[in-house]
């Protein structure tokens, strides 16, 4: 999935939380693009 971390695009995080691409990127502490993220099944 590709996300524009400067956008207010609505997303649903793996934990089921509804947020925006911008807020989720901040929560994950992403500072550079491109960035690859890998999630465990239990996340």
Key terms:
43 residues; alpha+beta; two-stranded antiparallel sheet; 1 helix; globular
What do these coordinates show?
- By secondary structure, this protein is of the alpha+beta class.
- It has one domain.
- Helices cover 16% and strands 14% of the residues.
- The chain has a two-stranded antiparallel ribbon with strand order 1-2.
- The relative contact order is 0.22.
- It comes from Thioalkalivibrio nitratireducens (strain DSM 14787 / UNIQEM 213 / ALEN2).
Residue stretches low in confidence (pLDDT < 50, at least 5 long) are: none
Distance between the termini: 17 Å
Give a count of the beta strands, DSSP E runs of length 2 or more.
Answer: 2
Write down the domain tally.
1
Instruction: Summarize the biggest pleated sheet.
Output: 2 strands, antiparallel
Order of helices and strands: EEH
Secondary structure elements and their pairing?
Elements: E1 10-12, E2 18-20, H1 21-27
Antiparallel strand pairs: 1-2
Organism: Thioalkalivibrio nitratireducens (strain DSM 14787 / UNIQEM 213 / ALEN2)
Protein name: Thioredoxin SoxW
Entry summary:
It contains one helix and two strands.
């Amino acid at each position: 999935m590709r996300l524009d971390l400067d956008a207010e695009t609505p997303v649903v995080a793996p934990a089921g939380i509804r947020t925006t691409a911008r807020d989720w990127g901040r929560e994950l502490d992403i500072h550079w693009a491109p960035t690859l993220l890998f999630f465990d099944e239990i996340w």
